Amino acid sequence: MGEYYHLYNRGTEKRDIIIDPYDLNRFMESILEFNTIEPIGSIYERSFIKNKLGAPTTKSKKLVSIISYCVNPNHFHFLLTPLVEKGVEKFMQKIGGYTRYFNEKYKRNGVLFQGKFKSKHIADNRYLVHLSAYVNMNNRDPLGTPTTKLSKSSLEEYTENKIGFCSSEIVLGQFKSGKEYLEFALESWKDILERKKALEME
Asked: What is the tens place of the pLDDT at every residue in 76-109?
């Protein structure tokens, strides 16, 4: 705990894991609802508890604190820190429950994601700040416009004070405003895209 990690994975055989807006909403709901130390069953089952108690289901202790995220049609990124022992592993195991929903909906069997999720430890603050920009901008063009409606990131939580579930203070506290962060993120993303393009030309 007190450590930060970049987690990511993609669909097996590079297949899409988000096919329509409902899938995107379901994946986002999974991120929110499964971030708890309590066993909650499926999101479908959880909805009945919500209705019965008439209260949100996310009040219990969280497994991780999410700094930034991006969900794309065929892959996702999380920047987070664990809040409990083995919080990262437990959170990602629960997120894997999305596979059951996806397989039932699209009448398929087998794994949905490409093996175990990938994890990189974030060693210093500079890397943390730049990585937040990479994750937030991962579904954007150089102007910051989303490249598809089947994608969502936490960028607006950083730049427009939109209510979400990210703990962005550790990054945003290093900027004067959301506008300044956006300028930084756009420039950082532009540099990344230019480097990728240069590598493709080699």
From this structure: 999 999 999 999 999 999 998 899 999 999 999 9
Average confidence (pLDDT) over 36-53: 58
Closest listed residue to residue 137, CA positions, set 196, 62, 95, 200: 196
Domains of the chain and CATH, by start: 4-201 (3.30.70.1290)
Triad 112, 115, 119: Cα angle to 5°: 120
CA distance 123 to 165: 24
Beta carbons of 105 and 25 less than 8 angstroms apart? no
What is the rounded CA–CA span in Å between residue 86 and residue 96? 16
Residue with tokens 């289901």: 57
Dist CA 142 CA 146 (whole Å): 10
Over its C-alpha atoms, the chain yields an Rg (Å, rounded) of 17
| Distance, CA of 2 to CA of 121 (rounded, Å) | 11
* Residue 97 exposed, middle or buried by CB count within 10 Å (0-12, 13-18, 19+): middle
Q: Residue 164: which residues within 8 A CB-CB, separation 6 or more?
A: 154, 156, 157
What 3-state DSSP class applies to 10? strand
